[in-house]
């Protein structure tokens, strides 16, 4: 029973792969990771690969920062 979780994940069929925002950060200071994950996984759960990040709150210069790995996004 202790290793049942790893056995279940070994044959995991989680639907198709989607690109989504995974929420991080803390209260009143959100931060998002742009990730590729199975469609049936939880929003902030395990993901296949991180493709970028998004900071929705403006910085000192009034800019919202987005970072993307375009090479991996095309793949």
UniProtKB/TrEMBL annotation:
GO molecular function: structural constituent of ribosome
Alphabetical list of Pfam families matching this protein: Ribosomal_S16 (PF00886)
Gene3D superfamilies noted in UniProt: 3.30.1320.10
One GO location term (cellular component): mitochondrial small ribosomal subunit
GO biological process: mitochondrial translation
Keyword tRNA-binding attached: no
SUPFAM superfamilies registered for this protein in UniProt: Ribosomal protein S16
Record keywords: Ribonucleoprotein, Ribosomal protein
Family: Belongs to the bacterial ribosomal protein bS16 family.
Protein's UniProt name: Small ribosomal subunit protein bS16m
Species for this entry: Ibidorhyncha struthersii
Name of the gene encoding the protein in the UniProt record: Mrps16
């Amino acid at each position: 029973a202790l290793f049942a979780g790893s056995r279940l994940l070994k044959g995991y069929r989680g639907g198709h792969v989607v690109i989504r925002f995974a929420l991080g950060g803390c209260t009143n200071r959100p931060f998002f990771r742009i990730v590729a994950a199975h469609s049936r996984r939880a929003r902030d759960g395990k993901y296949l690969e991180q493709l970028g990040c998004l900071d929705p709150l403006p910085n000192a210069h009034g800019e919202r920062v987005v970072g993307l790995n375009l090479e991996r996004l095309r793949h």
